[in-house]
From TrEMBL:
Protein name (record): MULE transposase domain-containing protein
Domain of life: Eukaryota
Amino acid sequence: MSIILSWLDYAQAVLQQCQLYLDPIFPCDIQSKYAIRNTHTREINGRDHKTKYTRMVCLVQCQCGSDHTDRHQPSKKPQRPWKDVGCGFWVEITSVHLNCISGMPEHCVECAAEVEMIQMPQVPLHPVIWEHALQLLHDGLTIRLVEKECNKKANELFGNSVGDEHACYHLEPYESTSLYRTIVRESGLKQWSKTVENLDRWFRKDDPQPPPGHPNLGDNILYYQPHVEGETDQFILMDSTFGFSSDWLLLFTLVTIDDRNRGIPISYMLFSVRQQTKAVHVDYNGELLSRILQAWKDGMGTNAAGEPFKARIAITDNDLKERRALSETWPDVLLLLCLAHTWRAWGNDLNRYLCIIPKGSERQEVHSHLGKFLWKLCIYYYMHTIHSNISKKQSIGGLAFLAYLVPYIKSQSLWHQWSYTGALEAASTLGIPVGMMPCTTNHLESHNRHLKESYIQAKLHGRQLPQADWWVILLITKVLPDLF
């Protein structure tokens, strides 16, 4: 059945007769059996080829014909307020203003007999509160703060009323899903699109197609390697921080320090890991990281003198794979060890070796002596002390720890990376006072924590983390502009 309508008034009369709703002409009644399944919009030209109109195609279905098990993501129990009796009612409304209604506008006998809902419906949020909630989410507020601010605004606009027959005035928990989906759609991501397909479509070499609203997205990418079955899956990728995406993804960040001692990120490297991996945070090796760092170095280009980008000093944690990759990419780089990570590693081993000493003053005395000894960063003080005072301790635990520590002190390639001597050489290389040399990777750790707390928390849907494609858009369009 198809009805072609020439007059807007007649079209509205048909909608009213069928008890259909079409916002904002006929707002939805919360007891309505109808639900809008999907809506598509596109711009069309007017007769003068100058005026622009928006054409909308809206599919409406009776909820008594909605099977909760037959959908993209089946649910275990029905979420619709009306019982499913297999009603075949559906209507497709096509409009520039409103000019075509087609479908099967007839209910079955069983549907007509259903006059009471089986559960309370999810009442839509009032449009004014909805727009306010979207703006707050765009501003980076968490959903809890958004809920608080929206309820405050609702009280200002509508007093103590909780809603009417068309909408509620207070933000309910179930509305968070629709809000996040709206934000994702605004970013150009389709709701059911796959992450790997999106990234490949945006950044592939041949005919890249960036998402709507982000035509220059590819200009921010120095290197992209898609996964090719049988070709790229022999590589194990790199970890720097994880737990920021719902996809199996790792983020490696390069940070430099400006003249005001602030950490400035200069590169974000996103890594996908193997699907069969059990521990995401350890699925990487130095060989692939070297390859990625070399690609980033090449992407940085050259300076005015034609010299390639060169890293002179680098500080990392105790990860040998990271250090190997940096050394292979820049053979002359001076590598330093993060003092905080070194101290933590020593502290863990110190506690392990001293556990044979009974708790109390005896263990605390040895722990205090060794702790003060470790904190002194002069290599000559180390060598003098190890042969005099501390080595004469009668505690087996203390001697065992010193035996563990001796190789780190005797090997110049090891002690030079965390000692004061290494900091002096690095400061001399850069031509800065040694007091300006960072001894830890705290700037990087702080930045990673800032990413997770300031950006991820606002994008959490329940406990669900953002997907990788959404993260790429967020880093380029939100994180980097906020920093620079």
